[in-house]
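Case study 2.
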Amino acid sequence: MKKIIKTSTQILTGIATFATLTAGRILSANAGATEGAAPVENAEGATEKASGSVESTIEAITNSENPAQAGAEAARANGMPAELLGSSGVFTQVTNTILYAVGIISVVMLIFGGFRYIVSGGDSKKVTDAKNTIMYAIIGLVIAILSYAIVNFVISAVGGTPQV
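Prediction:
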């Protein structure tokens, strides 16, 4: 059993590492793109697209009435959400992704518990362990579903629109 847990932990760590590296590459590729640069106000108040070079970005920021906002807009990559809350907000996307992962893990553990129950061979200790695995997987699944509902309710109450 310890070897199974160790192996599954190593596999999950590898998958998480691969996903992190892939996301980093995608974000860096998006950040390097210059054709969809964020709009910035110039000194005359006209909105223009930054060309993507460091000099033009610095010039656009220093000539803007609100340099902090202009800097934040210049640093934002293509496709990156501009708001924190809302259906496409960063907070909503992160929490929903985590809750989906917890739900998937709960379903996998439910299947694993069922498999353990089938192969227990009538041994009372193995049957009890399998039943506990199934019970805790169901509890995890219920918690994931309720958390999803609570998070989306709070986000909609704060002012964003929930993601359905």
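The first strand starts at residue 39 and ends at 41.
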